[in-house]
Amino acid sequence: MQITRNSIETRRGPSEWFTGEVYIDMVAAPSDASPLSASSVHFTPGARTAWHTHPNGQTIWVTEGVGLCQREGGPVEVIRPGDRVFFEPGENHWHGAAPTRFMTHIAMQQANDAGEVVAWGEHVSDEQYGNVPSITEGDN
């Protein structure tokens, strides 16, 4: 058993990877003992990732708020607390907060043999993000 005391401050998500204000708390970093990378990611209303892929896929687990996600070629989907989304290895996708709501999720992915967990692409345009379905409770 190993306990790691939290000594890492919350960091702001870099503008190369995100649109809007995003804050990241590291949960697990890949190591020789485990390839797992995990972060708690806090999105302000309208904030979102750029398009990206993961060599071994990614699972996000929504812990609070209302969010959105989309895989390339698919519709924008509404996600809520308790929802889990799995993106296949190499699947181009984005995720973030709804326009009028905060959203936090735990993002989990495994590093490949080169230690890489993500490949970043272009930013999600305002037009792409604007294809948001209704987020009214009960709508899916």
Q: Would you mind describing this structure in some detail?
A:
This protein has 140 residues and is mainly beta. It is built from one helix and 13 strands; from the N terminus they run βββββββββββββα. The strands form four sheets. A six-stranded antiparallel β-sheet has the order 1-3-4-12-7-10, with no helix packed on it. A three-stranded antiparallel β-sheet has the order 9-8-11, with no helix packed on it. The longest helix has 4 residues, at 126-129.
* Molecular shape: globular
Q: Number of helical segments?
A: 1
In this structure, how is the largest beta sheet organized?
6 strands, antiparallel
Which structural class is indicated by helix and strand composition? mainly beta
Strand line-up across the major sheet? 1-3-4-12-7-10
Residue-averaged pLDDT, rounded?
Answer: 92
Termini Cα gap: 42 Å
Radius of gyration: 15 Å
Helix fraction by DSSP (H/I, runs of at least 4): under 10%
What are the low-pLDDT stretches, counting only 5+ consecutive residues below 50? none
Strand content: 35-45%
Order of helices and strands, N to C?
A: EEEEEEEEEEEEEH
The number of E-state strands comes to 13
